[in-house]
Amino acid sequence: MRPVSTPTEVAEKPDGTAKESTGSSVAFTATLILLVGTALFGRRLFTGWFTAGGIRTWATMFVGVTIQAMPFLVLGVLLSAALTAFVPASFFAKALPRHPALAVPVASASGVVLPGCECASVPVSAALMSRGVTPAAAIAFLLSAPAINPVVLTSTAVAFPGKPQVVIARAVTSLAVSMVLGWLWLLTGKGGSWFKMPKNRHAHDAGKFDVFRSAMLHDFLHAGGFLVIGAAAAATLNVVVPRTWLDHVAGNLLLSVVILGLLAVLLAICSEADAFVAASLSQFSLTARLAFMVVGPIVDVKLIALQAGTFGPKFAVRFAPATFVVALTASLLVGWWLL
């Protein structure tokens, strides 16, 4: 029996997927080289496309999004690897109700225990699926964890002092969205060829620490590359999208909800910080700002990239629009009710 030395050796298959981790490493390194070169020579390469100030803004946004998200991505990767290596599969079967429809709200409520952002929830939900948790419950957890954990709710309370209804509205809306999307998966997602089910890539006879190490390296290289791509996209959108039009739509409730929802997708702000940005948009109603805080942690450009890399691009192009529509609808309803 050969020793476990890398994730790809453990996962070797006839179809060539054993090269997945190596390919992710090469792609990640190439992306970093490309972006560093762009930062160094971008002013000459993009003269006429961006102003010098635009280049600086792009670099600041790219570095800010990456640095802001990376610690939580690392947290998610470590937790994902720990779940894979140290938690027996039978634990998840006992922790959640056997009926998938009942497992969804339990998984949604359990999102409160992970103090991280959306970058951490993607690898953790993938690990849950690979350990036997129904995809509907794992998806519900993926959506609720970055939005209802104590860190996010505390930051929301600090950003909106004297307005506890905003905190309650955010928690209720995010929890409702996660359950609706989980139940929607039960109705439409079973057996879909457009969903890449995460697999347990590690040999059952490997040592637990070997499994932990190989899982951590694989997931970080795999998810980190997509995070870099998503951060670059968010920075580009921040440079090219004009800001002056915001003042013209704030007076229309429905339009302002849609616009702030789209802005949340484009800005890709970490869920621990988005409440302060929402609070600064004082020209908009509380309902519109609620939509900004609900949409951001569950669908933005870097999260779409992470989901595409983890569950496949066909999943991302279906899941992101559905999540966006459900989030806006729930924000309008809860905003009308509580705000």
From TrEMBL:
The chain crosses the membrane at residues 26-46, 58-87, 136-160, 167-187, 220-241, 253-269, 315-338. It is found in: Cell membrane. InterPro entries: DUF318 (IPR005524), UPF0718 (IPR052923). This is Permease. Signal peptide: none annotated. It is a multi-pass membrane protein. One of its GO terms (cellular component) is plasma membrane. Its main location: membrane. It comes from the Bacteria. Belongs to the UPF0718 family. Pfam families: ArsP_1 (PF03773). Residues 1-22 are annotated as: Disordered. Keywords: Cell membrane, Membrane, Transmembrane, Transmembrane helix.
